[in-house]
Amino acid sequence: MKYYWIFLWLCILSFACLTPGTAQTPVQITNYNYKNYKGGIQNWGITLSPEQILYSSNNNGLLRYNGNDWTLLEPGERSTVRAVRCIGNRVYTAGDNNIGYWEYDPNGKIIYTSLLPLVNKLGIKGETFWSIGETEGKVYFHSFGNIICYDGKEMDYLLKNDCCISLYQVNEKLFTQKCGGALMQIRDNKLEDFFDDAVFWNGEIKFMFPIADNEYLIGQSGGKIYSLKNNEVRPFMQLENENHIPVRIDCGSIWKDELLAVGTIGDGLFLINLKNGQQTHYHSSQLQDLNIHGLCFADENFLWLSLDNGISSVILEPATYIWKTNTDIGSFFDAAHFNEKTYVASNQGIYLYEENGRKMPTSIYPLQFCNLKDELLCGTTTQLFKMTTKGAGFEPFCDINGVRQFEYVADRGDEYIFLRSYSGIALLEYKDNTWKYRSLLMNTEDYASIMPENLYTVWAIHPEKGIYRLRINRELNQVTEFDNFSEIDGYSNYNRISLFKVEDKILFSTPKGVYLFDIAGKDFRRLEKMSKEILYLDKIQSVKAAYRNDIWVATDEELFLYHIADLSAEPVMHWPFVDNELMLYDKHYNLKSINDSITFVSTCEGTVVINNKMVSRCATNPAPLRIETFCFTGNDNTVHYVDFRQQEIELPNTATNITIQATTGLSTHAASISYRLPGVANEWSSWQTSGTIYFTNLPSGSYQLEIKDSNQNSLVIPILVSPPLYKRTWMIALYVLILLVITAGIVALISERKRKRLLRKYEEEQKKHVEELQQQAYEQLQEKVRNQESELKNRMRFLTQKQELLDAISTEVETQKNELGERYPNKLYRRLMKIIQEGATEKDKLLSFENYFVEVHYEFMLRMQKAYPDLSPSELKFCCLIRANLSTKEISVIMGIALRSVELKKYRLKRKLNLEQESSLTSYILNI
User: Which in 600, 743, 870, 914 has the greatest CB count within 10 A?
Assistant: First the structure.
């Protein structure tokens, strides 16, 4: 019979109470308040989904926690949610005038469906529901006056206007208790009597858990826990606080029939080991509130509490936890396990780890421990102290101050310890079953670190002068020779050069690599394989030996544990610094592995203890790194959720507020994430506990979002940001087409311009040729005109002379006739006068002359006719005579009129041409 011996023992003690014990198991309690989860102060029910998502009913709604980020979900307007239960793929909630369920769509968006309209149909309004249960495919909601049932479509009464305490989910079964009455089971949508006993009549059942076939543990509000088996109830335990006052139980949870967690009102948390009956009490010194309304186990050592003020997580045997703050014990220096106790040295004294950090009554200022040969050595600022297995405390035995490093060396059966102190390097020798002072090496200084190569050769790093290889004389009292190296492979920041021994080899680490000294070549040889295996080598700050062939590697953001085998580094553990960085004390990080399990680390918040075995267990089965949602804000300011499971996530180019919600899951070993987006952010981001990755927007293009967590999980999410409309493929094709059309148009235009240019050139050449021809014709014509004018003038001169001659002859004939009278023969006179008259009236010749003159001035006559159409032919001829620049006399001769008649014709022509009196008619005609 399981646990029968416990029950028998309890019965013998007549329902005696178990005294709360002090927790010896390391525990990490993390408290979350309303500022962390951004909800109401008060919390009620709490549960975990199969996907390891935490849900807690809160005064302002439903709280959701995925291990990285809190989310407040509100069922409509903000209202108090008092009950929550995960059933199938739904999360059912109920509370003050709210009842319904939450469900995820394919893209991870959680959507609320209210069942309040169905409840209102039953005539229930303004009801407060306190618990939820499920059996036989139906969901039941409990208030103090009713129990209603939801079958997936409709809501109906199971119990109406009758008082029940709560609903108790026991695997597939569902129970309730009548107020002040029996325990009932809900079956076939009916209430059936399950067990009735007087022990239940005056108490309220707060939890009911199966621990075996037909065997249950039942907790009552008065602090009593019973065992119910085969219709027989037995006392199991009476919970009392340290003042032996019965506690008030409000809730409970159980892990695999082995560990019972009980939440109380005012007395915090009780953990009861059902195998051995051991009880552990967590109260005000650890929890932020002592009123616990809900409990649920996430793992064997992982428990969640919903409190009257906040939410807390309790991790038993955590992988990492802050053992003591700097306020408690100061800054950690060193630790050592000796004589079944662990001694912790800090700048405030020596503390005992197993005794919850009790300070030893000593005034020494410890710096470093060394546990060898059943003696614990302690270096201080003043002396070297020693403790033996038989001694009660530390006793001084050597006046060497400032010992901060112990290095053991064995040589031919003799054993020594090199000490690094303020005064230089000193030496201890093991004689007569105890450590004794041997010598202080002359010619040594206060080094930053030392490492013996053998009894007569020691490596040392000085923070300013470089790296030394010291050679010691046979008397072991002074350094006689040394080699000084100012750099290793070009690196000379001595504060970041670490000196450590692993696999009996002395190694040197720098941000450029890990090196081994070549004695023959007196040079440092880079270990290529090991240098490549150590992550983020360029960020290394310090390397320290851990346990056996393990080393700690500290960068400026992370702490790594590596196992070294055949000078190959295999990562064992990874711890990012998130809101708690390593403390750099006197230019060094202080951390110490006291065995293969426990390591103490000095951080800015306090002394952190790392349980390497628990870390390895967590690393073996880490929670998977996964994406929960991927959303963005569109042009319409609406949040759009995308399917992140597709091979490539496509976003519009207008997407803003791009938010990726990643989670590392609920785990006892808190995981952090880091990410990078090559092309936008090529460097890894700082480690963060939040799983939210945010980008305001992204340029169009293809990306690979890389995400990693501190458990060495990784994800790669392909993202394609669609180009804007003007960058789309078909638009580019259109651009190409338009470009081709434009190019063709430009080519055509250029060709047309070229053609027109050639045509214009041809026309210009033709015009020029025509003009040249015209010019030639004009010149020929001008030459002809000049010749004709010359000929005309000659002819006019001839005519004038002829006329003058004829006039002279006529005058002479008339004179002779008058003088001779009758003596002059009339016949001769008439004949002579006839000849003279015929010479003066040569009409054909004169007509030929006029035609010739008109031909010369033809264009001029056309211009005159166009400008003055009223001019008569004789006036046009007169204008031509004037244009020929003939004198008045010459014109009178040509026209056969008197000189005065010529002047009169000029006057009349001048009036007809509308010229002023003083204007020159000749100049005007010549300019036409």
Answer: 600
Dist CA 559 CA 576 (whole Å): 6
Mean per-residue pLDDT for 172-190?
92
Average pLDDT, the chain: 87
Whether the CB-CB separation of 144 and 177 falls below 8 Å is answered with no
Q: How many residues does the chain have?
A: 928
158-197 per-residue burial string, b: 16 or more CB within 10 A, e: under 16: bbeeeebbbbbbeeebbbbbbeeeebbbbeeeebeebbee
Record the pTM. Answer: 0.73
Q: With a cut of 60, say whether residue 848 has pLDDT above it.
A: no
Q: Greater confidence, 564 or 588?
A: 564
Cα 582 to the center of its chain, rounded Å: 25
Stated as kind and residue range, the H or E segment containing 905 is helix 899-912
Residues 685-695 pLDDT 10s:
988 989 999 99
C-alpha span between 260 and 255 (Å, rounded):
7
DSSP, res 246: B
Residue 521 has φ and ψ, to the nearest 5°, of -90, -5
Asked whether the beta carbons of 853 and 845 are under 8 A apart, the reply is no
Q: Mind listing the pLDDT tens digit for each residue in 699-720?
A: 989 999 999 988 778 899 999 9
CA neighbor of 76 nearest in space, from 107, 115, 104, 123: 115
C-alpha to C-alpha distance for 528 and 910, rounded to whole angstroms = 119
Does the pLDDT at position 3 exceed 60? Answer: no
* Strands (DSSP E) found in 33-125: 43-48, 54-58, 61-65, 70-73, 81-87, 90-95, 98-104, 110-114
